[in-house]
Amino acid sequence: MAFTLCEPQDADFVEIMECAYLAFAEEPFRPLVFPGQPSMEVYQKHAQALIKARDKDPSLSYRIVRQTSTGKIVAASRWCFDMVGGRFPDNITVTWVGHPGSEERMWAQHCLGDINSVKKETMSGPHCELALCFTHPAFQRRGVGTLMMEWGLTTAQAMGLQTFVFGMGMAESFYKRWFQCARHVIYRFDRWPNQPTLQYTVFYTSTNEH
Questions:
Q1: Phi-psi region at 27: left, alpha or beta (left = phi > 0; alpha = psi -120 to 50)
Q2: Pairing state between β 60-67 and 3-6
Q3: Tens-digit pLDDT profile for residues 29-38
Q4: Considering the entire predicted model, what is its pTM?
């Protein structure tokens, strides 16, 4: 089965979001990134947010993988090739998860605030970040992820950038093929017992490896 790697058009982002919700359906961190139950309205909302962020930040680059015979989007990734550094703020305010004052939002604020702090510390200078990467469940283990990784890491290497990814869930085993592990973090919250335990691994590669 043949696949094609390409840059998405604006009209592709709704389908990208549909693929993302399928890929992350069983992942406990999904509400942190893409909250809301799957629906066309939710897909369109998140698609517009991704397009707006991409247009605002020239360092962002998306790649999708299509099934050549059908044109179906089966995977996507978002890369940031930051030649300057310093793009992470001192603090972030979560407004897209839960309601103000809710347990869900406080949990999300704590998790994402901590992750932002680690990213700010880890990626303070010029770098490449693989900020998002997923494959449709029906097309995993077919070399689709490899197409995206080879493109992104080769591009970063040509630019002289060290690449980082904060891996969560099932993707961690995949990233181990491409990166070294810098640190592993587990979040367990007694004060928010209804929220899931989360864990992530900071992966990196040197500028002369891929």
A1: beta
A2: antiparallel
A3: 888 888 888 9
A4: 0.91
Which pairing describes strands 127-135 and 163-168: parallel, antiparallel, or unpaired?
A: parallel
Q: Which residues pair with 148 in a beta bridge?
A: none
Residues 4-46 pLDDT 10s:
999 999 999 999 999 999 999 988 888 888 888 899 999 999 9
Type of residue found at 196 = P
Hey, what amino acid is at 125? G
Q: What is the DSSP letter of 8?
A: P
3-state secondary structure of 152: helix
Cα angle for residues 160, 163, 164 (degrees, 5° grid): 155
Q: Is 165 helix (H, G, I), strand (E, B) or coil?
A: strand
- Beta strand 198-205 with 3-6: parallel, antiparallel or unpaired? unpaired
Please check whether residue 202 is in contact with residue 116, taking contact to mean a CB–CB distance below 8 angstroms. no
Q: Cβ neighbours of residue 188 under 8 Å, at least 6 residues apart? A: 197
Q: DSSP character for 102?
A: -
pLDDT band at 160 (very low <50, low <70, confident <90, very high): very high
pLDDT score of 207 more than 50: yes
* Distance from C-alpha of 88 to C-alpha of 184, rounded to nearest angstrom: 20
CB neighbours (10 Å) of residue 30?
18
Give every CB contact of residue 49 below 8 A, 6+ residues apart in sequence.
none
